[in-house]
Amino acid sequence: MTRSKMVRYALSSVSLLFLLAAQQPTCNRCSATYISNTEIQAYVKRAVANGIIDQQVRSVDVGKTQVGVGLVYRGKLNAPANASVAEHDLISEVYHVIDGSATLVTGPDLIDSKRRPADLLTVREFNGPGNNAVSIRNGVTHHLAPGDVIVIPAGTGHWFTKIDDHITYLMIRIDPDKAVPLKDEAASKAYLRTEPKKIDR
Q1: What domains are there in the chain, each with its CATH number?
Q2: Crossing angle of the two packed helices 185-193 and 37-50, in degrees rounded to 10
Q3: Exposed, middle or buried, 199 (CB in 10 Å: 0-12/13-18/19+)?
Q4: Model pTM?
Q5: 84-113, pLDDT tens digit by residue?
Q6: Cα separations (Å) of 74 from 110, 149, 162?
Q7: Handedness of CA 98, 89, 154, 131 (dihedral sign)
Q8: CB 61 within 8 A of CB 184
């Protein structure tokens, strides 16, 4: 083999290695996560019966990020609660409305923000560190109804200002910093078997 052929062969081999490396999945040989509607409805039932707002159904590692799946149920709201704007520093959220309707205001410019206590269950296990605030300056108003989806990036405030009767939505949490613990099917089933606390947040 001539020197030029050897160089071409070596370069081809290196190029092939780079190509193969680029094609590796970010979560190599990971299992899919299935959540049945029966399990989701068990969370809805628990929420309605016990006044629980937010419950984490799963938190799974998918390689470069974790993905959380939560079930949120909120009852009727005629006016926003005091300092009820929420913002999460690290975790983005996607809401998919199952039923009910509400008015949600979003925006990054928080008024009178204050750090959420680090020992809150929602901070520790659901949506990580962030702030609560009194209001959102120049916020955008969204009227949410069944089937609607809204994407709320990390750092964007979100604030329910009215809930007509109730709203139930599936919450997908995107957690690239892996700020909250994992939760698998076994942990979910164990949680559903426990006695609910009136304030389970």
Answers
A1: 35-193 (2.60.120.10)
A2: 30
A3: exposed
A4: 0.86
A5: 999 999 999 999 999 999 999 999 999 999
A6: 22, 16, 10
A7: positive
A8: no
The one-letter amino acid code at 117 reads P
SS3 of residue 9 by DSSP:
helix
| Tokens (6 digits) for 135 | 């209001």
- 85 CB contacts (<8 Å, ≥6 apart)? 110, 111, 113, 131, 132, 133, 134, 135, 136, 157, 158, 159
164 is written with which tokens? 């007509």
Q: In this structure, what token pair is assigned to residue 30?
A: 């990971």
d(CA 10, CA 134): 63
- Distance CA(118)–CA(101), nearest Å, equals 30
State how beta strands 85-88 and 66-77 pair.
Answer: unpaired
In the structure encoding, which two tokens stand for residue 127, read together? 């949506």
In this predicted model, what pLDDT tens digit does every residue of 108-132 receive, in sequence order? 999 999 999 999 999 999 999 999 9
Spell out where 28-91 has E strands.
Answer: 54-61, 66-77, 85-88
